[in-house]
Amino acid sequence: MAGTLYIVPVPIGNLGDITQRALAVLAQVDIIACEDTRTTRQLLKLLNIQPRQCISYHEHNEKQRASLLIQRLLQNLNVALVSDAGTPILSDPGYVLVTQAIEHNISVVPLPGPTAFVPALIASGLPPVPFVFVGFPPHKKRRKKFLQYMLSFPATVVCYESPHRLLKLLAELEQLDAGNRRACIARELTKYHEEFLRGSVSELHLLLQQRSTIKGEVVVVLEGAPSKATNEANVP
Q1: Could you tell me the domains of the chain?
Q2: Fewer Cβ within 10 Å of end Cβ, the chain: N or C?
Q3: Which residues in 115-132 are b (16+ Cβ under 10 Å) and which e?
């Protein structure tokens, strides 16, 4: 008999967002697989949870650790997968582990919980349905093609971006004739300095250029393409 793989969201900032079910699972599983053991151990300490075992599971060791975790699951051990913040797998490691668990007929139990793009979307003032979540744009390779593809959707588009590349992203969107599109930038969600900036892409670019620094996790919500501009685009 195999164990169970739990996918456990953790707070993106405010500790009050942890669910009772997540607390129970994290306290009971045999292994917690996490992006950074130091970050997760600090969180568990704040939550008064003493884990049985924490092991690292990140983008650089995902394939090897997935195989190890599958072995442990097949030995009837229960595993919780967490990311540093928010819901695992969405722009974080975990997909390899889940697909291998399914291949081995191991039960995969996802828990609902915190994620950054949903609160950003519903507070953006842009149409929430339909929407497309595209994760992080590529840093260099295929970036322009990816942005063109992203701009082709007639639905509201949500993406993540590093604060260090936010101005670059806004400038690129302007260069691709999206400067007049409505947008919302959500920063530091659920934290003390939570902020929502709303306006056109060009207005937000001008506003943020006046700041000496841009800090914190960033979610960008962008108005979808007008109907006349929704010609098919090649998937990057």
Answers
A1: 4-110 (3.40.1010.10), 117-229 (3.30.950.10)
A2: N
A3: bbbbbbbebbebeeeebe
